[in-house]
Amino acid sequence: MRLLFLGDIVGRPGRTAICNALPALITRYGIDFVVINGENAAGGFGITEAILNDVLDAGADCVTLGNHSFDQKDTLVFIERHDRLIRPLNYPKGTPGKGSTLLKARNGADVLVINAMGLVFMPDLNCPFRAVDAELTACALKSGADVILVDFHAEATSEKQAMGLFLDGRASVVVGTHTHTPTADARILPAGTAYMTDAGMCGDYNSVLGMDSDEPINRFLTKIPRSRYEPATGPGTLSGLLVDIDDATGLATRVQPLRQGPCLAPATPEV
Amino acid sequence: MRLLFLGDIVGRPGRTAICNALPALITRYGIDFVVINGENAAGGFGITEAILNDVLDAGADCVTLGNHSFDQKDTLVFIERHDRLIRPLNYPKGTPGKGSTLLKARNGADVLVINAMGLVFMPDLNCPFRAVDAELTACALKSGADVILVDFHAEATSEKQAMGLFLDGRASVVVGTHTHTPTADARILPAGTAYMTDAGMCGDYNSVLGMDSDEPINRFLTKIPRSRYEPATGPGTLSGLLVDIDDATGLATRVQPLRQGPCLAPATPEV
Amino acid sequence: MRLLFLGDIVGRPGRTAICNALPALITRYGIDFVVINGENAAGGFGITEAILNDVLDAGADCVTLGNHSFDQKDTLVFIERHDRLIRPLNYPKGTPGKGSTLLKARNGADVLVINAMGLVFMPDLNCPFRAVDAELTACALKSGADVILVDFHAEATSEKQAMGLFLDGRASVVVGTHTHTPTADARILPAGTAYMTDAGMCGDYNSVLGMDSDEPINRFLTKIPRSRYEPATGPGTLSGLLVDIDDATGLATRVQPLRQGPCLAPATPEV
Amino acid sequence: MRLLFLGDIVGRPGRTAICNALPALITRYGIDFVVINGENAAGGFGITEAILNDVLDAGADCVTLGNHSFDQKDTLVFIERHDRLIRPLNYPKGTPGKGSTLLKARNGADVLVINAMGLVFMPDLNCPFRAVDAELTACALKSGADVILVDFHAEATSEKQAMGLFLDGRASVVVGTHTHTPTADARILPAGTAYMTDAGMCGDYNSVLGMDSDEPINRFLTKIPRSRYEPATGPGTLSGLLVDIDDATGLATRVQPLRQGPCLAPATPEV
Ligand SMILES: [Fe+2]
Ligand SMILES: [Fe+2]
Ligand SMILES: [Fe+2]
Ligand SMILES: [Fe+2]
Ligand SMILES: [Fe+2]
Ligand SMILES: [Fe+2]
Ligand SMILES: [Fe+2]
Ligand SMILES: [Fe+2]
């Protein structure tokens, strides 16, 4: 089967690019399941229910989050109503929502999506290595799910690469998010897990992390905020990866980066 | 003219890959000037004078450093003897060595190489934005140098992208290092500067940042060191970017990622 | 001569305690000069011009700031109009206001007040050690000023103690702020500088740093903000130190902690 | 009953001061139980079994640790043999040793000692608030233990004050360690828990955190290590607090700071 993952949606440029391009991508590539990180979809800060519904309508099967999960206060409420929206697994007990979800793909496969957050230079959540390990023990590849995708939302490349190798052979895909910058290291790890340190973002790359660059540059220079961060307003570029998965093993047979839009060198997977 | 930049050399796999491959790359692509970040060349921690000489002999014109600049104590001494080895510009006054160097390329062009270090999640050096700005004011593109390359050694993608846009049009190339993971965003910024958030490393990618993955995974799981970090020992992969520069403007006309080796999907520039 | 320093004013409880108690303290102890850190005077976040004037009217000769210097945007403007309000010296060039001020004490002595901010776990300003060193070189004790007080606004006790010993003999007083918790280590260092790692705060100590404890405890437990931080509303306690200075040398002859209010064990200096 | 807590032992000056003074203190004040943080007892880094035995022989009933728990590798082994040595509770499952211990005081009371570590600016352990809460639920004051002392080893005063108020009424004593600087805020919180943000250290205070100041000052100035950190070698000062506890409630009736030695203003509790 074939799975598409797209990185953090940043503001309107990201949303528009997804709504415009995703349906055709699903058709063209025969994609069975789509996961998108949506933690910056609402003006750069969190996600609203209306935006979530738009992204699901465009073809996403599951939306993941990160350190911006609850920037929109409503999310604490509506996340409980949605099976297709998850937040990092390693939030403390009692946090609204859930950190993983088991969903049906278009081809009938059971797909387990897990969202976890790194700790290096990040909020003090529970240990993501142990949290994901427990999840994969409870619902293992092939016995509990046909396909397992882990969105590891983390800052440090060390923590992301360690997670990839830690899970190698136990997940179909381990993909990083949060840096909003696609890495060029998509590959299949030795034991069969598709891996990419960061999927990049869906947004305007002529920016700082998808946000207009004036204020970030101002803060680096002066250390004093002048205004709020606002999403850049140029056309969005999509970034992520397309993974082919062996139905027998649940492991990856091919991973191809996908980048489509005006800012980055395109990466067009083979059909 | 044509310039090659390669990311952090990590241990023997990185050194061997460079010594084996660099001479042929220079010939094949007609490269006029080569800059390599060498901060992890000596077993992952700093650089020795012998290794520096090997890298220069293999064809590097300039070696840059980063937060590991002085892991080898000798570097505090021998850096003063070498015009082709620089450390971040924004170390405090009185630090041995220098943060920029003006060198002749094979085609006769004067190339200014600047090394700076980010502050986000990094040591507390002077402001890199102001330090580089002062340098570019003192030695501007075309009036002071034909070509200017900035190696911005930083953790956060935000700080690197802000630096790229801050310098756009004033440097030929702004390339990031430190995360040891190549990004897939090599491009020419609106005002003509070639930019890539991180060049990646030259080392064994079947690892955590080029180091054997056992100890990093152990520390993430247990929070207690069990042994020292050691470079992984598999064959190295080179990663960096090839930039074509307009002799008239000193700005970039083409930027192509280069990845060559067993671990990553290859990126082979056009000749 | 005799100098009083009081730590960070936090909200109304701190302001009220100062307005009520400071005039009597000045009289009772024959204080020649009063410095107060005011970075949290306005609801916990920065200072307004009206509050500054109230604090000066109550008897403060100089108000210092810290990482909350510009939480109230107006401060960027009115700080330029006030000789008695300073912000950390090691902000970048071009920052409104100044980092030191030379003022007349009631006994006619020239008092240099310097405000600097630490870098450990704090914003990335310029090196405070070098910034203060340059200031003390330009305006040395006895040649440039009769008395020199340094308010070092920093998180880490290591950085504060290093600053104290670094300046020992060159300043009359080095006192820390920012942790909002008085330390019990007020003493005269070997070369004559009065030192206290942290002066504590002027506010309601039945709290977390002067702020109502519900929201801080909520965030430690859940990692999700529920409301804004608000100052606690119980009666304020003053905390600081009283220093006697030898007019001939500018160095300290006695340092006594002062704590007055309902929450902490009182420290009542001898008259 | 009466309990003494002393802060982090730093190197030989701290050990000597404890061995010389503790027996007389126990006699003079009729102390029933002594807890000492020993994380820096061995040259500033961890503790050896020989040193542990010396400290126990001098009169300590329990020794706690912190971020330096396992700096001496042997500690991973010998901690399993000692009921009186504990490390932070919130290390991951499987960590050698334990995070709490129930011991008999000289007066026959059952004393539960809990050691926990903060997360702000500290290693990424499990949530200390939830870990201590679970412990106090399992072994509550009066039902599970006559007296409960929590050593909360943390950097940020905010986290320590939040812990104090979070546990107020559920523990006899909550005392902070790690900053090596005594705070002047020892008091009984509203619901009866004795609290002090930091107990200070037992070591040479003419130093940076008990370590010779040359190298710390060098690193702040140059950002380049010149030598290892070594304990300062002047005579040690003891610092901590003496708490009287109501046998009926297990809550505190009086808390008095204790400081004894050449560097700090003495704090001599009433007998
Ligand atoms: Fe994001
Ligand atoms: Fe994020
Ligand atoms: Fe590196
Ligand atoms: Fe680095
Ligand atoms: Fe403050
Ligand atoms: Fe502050
Ligand atoms: Fe310690
Ligand atoms: Fe510690």
Automatic annotation (TrEMBL), chains A, B, C, D:
Domain of life: Bacteria
Binding site for Fe cation 2: 39, 67, 153, 178
Membrane-spanning ranges: none
Signal peptide (UniProt feature, chain positions): none
Annotated keywords: Hydrolase, Iron, Metal-binding
One Gene Ontology MF term: metal ion binding
Binding locations of Fe cation 1: 8, 39-40, 180
Active site: 68
Recorded family membership: Belongs to the YmdB-like family.
Name of the molecule in the record: Metallophosphoesterase
Annotated organism of origin: Hyphomicrobium denitrificans (strain ATCC 51888 / DSM 1869 / NCIMB 11706 / TK 0415)
